[in-house]
Design a protein that fits this description.
The complex is a heterodimer of chains A (about 300) and B (about 500). Chain A is mainly α and about 300 residues long. Chain A has helices spanning about 1-40, 55-85, 95-115, 120-135, 150-180, 195-225, 235-250, 260-285, and strands spanning about 45, 50. Chain A folds into two domains: about 1-35 and about 55-145, Up-down Bundle (Four Helix Bundle (Hemerythrin (Met), subunit A)); about 155-290. Chain A has a two-stranded antiparallel sheet with strand order 1-2. In chain A, strand 1 (about 45) and strand 2 form a beta hairpin. In chain A, helix 2 packs antiparallel against helix 3, helix 3 (about 95-115) packs across helix 5 and helix 5 packs antiparallel against helix 6. With about 500 residues, chain B is of the alpha+beta class. Helices cover about 35% and strands about 35% of the residues of chain B. Chain B is built from ten helices and 20 strands. Chain B has helices spanning about 25-40, 45-60, 75-90, 90-95, 105-135, 145-150, 160-175, 200-220, 415-435, 465-485, and strands spanning about 150-160, 180-185, 190-195, 225-230, 235-240, 245-255, 265-275, 275-285, 290, 295-310, 315-325, 325-330, 335-340, 345-350, 365-370, 380-385, 390, 395-410, 440-445, 455-460. In chain B, a hairpin with a 2-residue loop joins strand 17 (about 390) and strand 18. In chain B, helix 3 (about 75-90) crosses helix 4, helix 5 packs antiparallel against helix 8 and helix 8 packs antiparallel against helix 9 (about 415-435). The longest helix of chain B has 30 residues, at about 105-135. The relative contact order of chain B is 0.14. Classes of the chains: A mainly alpha (about 300), B alpha+beta (about 500). Chains A and B meet through helix 6, helix 7 and helix 8 of A and helix 2, strand 7, strand 10 and helix 9 of B.
């Protein structure tokens, strides 16, 4: 089972890499179609502004299929790993990272289905691939659980919920990047700012309650295992910081003077806090959450 | 929170003109209070406070924080600061001055959290009347301009009379579970909405934070916590959390995975007594605490203990117990533990070995030091071989064998129920708020001179793109209903 998980993981990495390439071709082809259209050639404008010709469309379809393949392969990898270890596959940095990559991919595919903005893939998928490459470098044998992690239900639910939040925040980050790199007026065939703003918001609307739930489940677990629901452990603190930043974003987005660019910057800051919580705390900060298993 | 940036509604009724004949002072106080209220209920202030707390949080996550209580005790504080001094160098004192080692107890942090709490209470109060009004008395007449400028609008000329049109519109809206209200002043104004009560879920989610904070404060004020309750195998100790409670440790075991050497299990087999009667028997593990009433016992740490026997000159046994070596000496990090000797004025300190290379105290030996209980003066010191009695200050002392102690964390937190209640309200509130946005639609049916009517429909659109399709769906349903011949 462990081997199968490894194979599925490699398959997922290849599909993601290939998907990024095809998404890139799709973007270039779309950009060319946009140029031709401004030059007077016939073309059709997609529902949300992206210009598409027949070649672009089929490229997009292939990219999407590859993206789904990656999601399925990664899911299989996680399932095999769970069967092999006998618990939720979330017990060390390798397993977290695979799950994080899965969260990003799944969130991206969900948002693509809903908003048809494939350009987001050019930011979101490389982040997922980077996660997988990182996981690849720290692969290790399956280790049994230390006493603090011996709570199958909470281990699985607490981390699974966190993965949904982190995946959503990655999509919000991708939307914010595209929002911020657009020059005033010129759009380079990118999605309209309103659409990106909307996607960023919807992603946070999904992620925020899930992050709240992650923190609360963490508190429940801390109360069972450590005897205190809150100890200002670095991981707890950093999650709270992330929560506050996204909370600020949700308010900023409906405020004059804060919506638009500033709100997009808050999304960038929020994702930075997410990564800080994920990497810095697990790897460098001594605390109750040092389960990375990389010593 | 406040409506500062909400979407464009046509201007509300003009605020009542102030009485000009106010006296200066009253007017000034009034203005100050109004300004203060405006500040407190301002979302801008809330955002700034949230980001400021987040910034402090980053510091708190990166800078090593002192364990609670340490910084209140001057000698413990000096010890702790000297531990971190190699890391922070000359900054240590400056950082200590700015409370950077106790950020979450710092004055600044408390002020910011209090400010945010006041702000969110003020925002909720500020907001509630408006929500109440949109629920009970929503505005039906939004003016004709709204139907041209709203984010989503549509107009249809119909051959039905205004009253028939109203019936059709009502039918479609109610079919989709909208509440509808109408008002006829020559032109028929129609208002429909859905999930109106869900608007309060946002307020509930915000106030849930106050509930959580209240729980935390109650826990801090009335709770009990001892994170260093040490007890050696075979011993029974009173529990300070509740009168009459005592705990006996039968056995402690720590097991390790044979291949990796990683810890596998820590288990403390205990019996709990209340007024001498056994009330609970449990094996405490890391994820399996013992709960009795409001008091909970958690597995926290463990270590070795020395079983000591002390007899007086008549041969009467004064002490026969395991002494947990739960502390370390500051000078050379030796394990150390203490016990009192009843019937004498002495306190015994047992100092353990550092290992095979230790010349002073070798493995299989313990050093016993006797201090006077009142003045803390050392009166005797001797290294004891295991199983060999010795005489110190007229007492026969012996180190019988090594055993283990377990370190438990004992706590009673009366605020925890409030914390869980607040947590539940928080998640439920946000989920409802985001899942079921308040949906509103307005319609205006104006009669035409030659019969029939003009039906204009508009919606604010929402941040939710899904509402866009909802509006289009409603309009196409209404169109469909208008084209089917009306039943007589």
């Amino acid at each position: 089972m462990d081997k199968m998980a490894g194979y599925a993981f490699v398959a997922a990495m290849f599909s993601t890499g290939l998907a990024i390439f095809v998404y890139l071709l799709y973007a270039i082809s779309g950009l060319r179609a946009a140029r031709m259209q401004t030059a007077g050639a016939p073309g059709s404008t997609g529902a949300m502004g992206f210009v598409s010709g027949p070649r672009t469309a089929s490229m997009g379809r292939y990219a999407t299929i590859l993206g789904w393949l990656a999601v399925v392969a990664l899911l299989m990898s996680l399932v095999f790993r769970a069967i092999a270890t006998g618990h939720g596959p979330f017990a060390n940095m390798y397993e977290f990272s695979v799950a994080f990559a899965f969260g990003i991919l799944a969130a991206y595919m969900w948002f693509e289905r809903r908003y048809h903005q494939r350009i987001l893939a050019l930011v979101a998928l490389p982040v997922a691939l980077a996660m997988m490459l990182y996981a690849w470098t720290i692969q290790g044998p399956i280790e049994p659980l230390v006493p603090a992690l011996q709570n199958n239900l909470l281990l699985t639910v607490h981390v699974a919920v966190a993965i949904v939040a982190y995946g959503s925040f990655s999509i919000a980050f991708a939307a914010a990047v595209l929002y911020l790199i657009q020059p005033e007026g010129g759009r380079w065939g990118l999605p309209k700012p309103q659409v990106l703003d909307e996607i960023g918001y919807r992603a946070v609307v999904v992620g925020f309650p899930f992050l709240s739930l992650t923190i609360i489940l963490g508190a429940v677990w801390a109360d069972v295992a450590w005897g205190s629901y809150w100890s200002w452990d670095p991981k707890e603190t950093a999650s709270l910081v992330t929560w506050l930043i996204y909370g600020a974003y949700l308010h900023a987005r409906v405020m004059r003077g804060w919506r638009g660019n500033r709100a997009a910057w808050l999304l960038m800051l929020g994702f930075a806090a997410t990564l800080f919580t994920y990497f810095f705390i697990n790897l460098f900060a001594p605390g109750l959450h040092s389960y990375a298993g990389l010593s | 929170m406040t409506h500062e940036g909400s979407r464009p509604l046509p201007p509300a009724a003009v605020p009542a003109v102030r009485e000009a004949a106010r006296t200066g002072v009253v007017d000034r106080i009034d203005r100050v209070l109004e300004g203060l209220w405006h500040l407190l209920s301002s979302m801008r202030v809330a955002i700034v406070l949230m980001l400021a707390i987040a910034a402090l949080g980053v510091l708190g996550a990166v800078i090593i924080q002192a364990p609670s209580g340490v910084l209140n005790d001057p000698s413990a504080k000096a010890d702790w600061l000297s531990q971190v001094r190699p890391k922070y160098g000359g900054w240590t004192s400056i950082m200590d001055f700015f409370q950077l080692f106790q950020i979450f107890n710092s004055v600044l942090f408390r002020v910011l959290v209090a400010g945010l709490t006041i702000s969110l209470i003020a925002c909720s109060i500020h907001r509630t009347p408006g929500i109440w009004q949109t629920i009970t008395r929503p505005r039906l007449d939004v003016g004709p301009a709204f139907f041209e400028h709203a984010p989503q609008h549509e107009a249809v000329v119909v051959r039905h009379s205004p009253a028939e049109t109203l019936g059709i519109v009502n039918g479609v809206l109610q079919g989709r579970h909208y509440r509808t209200l109408a008002h006829d002043d020559g032109v028929i104004h129609v208002y429909g909405d859905r999930f109106r009560w869900v608007q309060f879920s946002g307020v509930v989610a915000h106030l849930s934070l106050v509930v959580i904070l209240a729980g935390a404060i109650i826990g801090a004020m009335f709770g009990y916590r001892d994170s260093g309750f040490t007890i050696a195998e075979g011993s029974t100790l009173p529990v300070a959390a509740e009168a009459g409670l005592s705990l006996q440790l039968i056995d402690f075991t720590d097991t390790y995975y044979t291949d990796s050497g990683m810890p596998q299990d820590y288990a403390s087999q205990v019996v709990l007594y209340k007024d001498g009667q056994e009330v609970a028997r449990h094996t405490i593990r890391v994820n399996d605490p013992l709960r009795y009433g409001d008091t909970t016992f958690y597995q926290a740490f463990f270590g070795s203990a020395a079983v000591m026997t002390v007899k007086d000159s008549t041969g009467k046994t004064l002490v026969s117990e395991g002494v947990p070596l739960a502390w370390t000496t500051t000078a050379d990090n030796r394990p150390i533990g203490s016990f009192t000797i009843p019937g004498t004025n002495y306190v015994g300190w047992v100092v353990g070995t550092l290992g095979a290379n230790d010349a002073t105290i070798q493995p299989g030996q313990m050093q016993l030091e006797l201090y006077t209980a009142d003045s803390g003066r050392e009166v005797a010191q001797q290294v004891l071989d295991q199983g060999t009695p010795a005489t110190m200050e007229g007492l026969t002392v012996s180190f019988d064998r090594e055993s283990q102690f377990t370190g438990l964390s004992v706590s009673r937190d009366p605020g925890v129920t409030l914390v869980w209640l607040g947590a539940f309200l928080l998640v439920a509130g946000f989920t409802l708020r985001f899942l079921l946005p308040h949906k509103r639609i307005w319609a205006r049916i104006s009669p035409r001179a030659n019969g029939g009517a003009v039906l204009a429909v508009a919606s604010l659109g929402s941040r939710d793109a899904a509402l866009g399709t909802e509006f289009q769906g409603l309009v196409s349903d209404i169109r469909g209903a208008l084209h089917t011949p009306a039943r007589s």
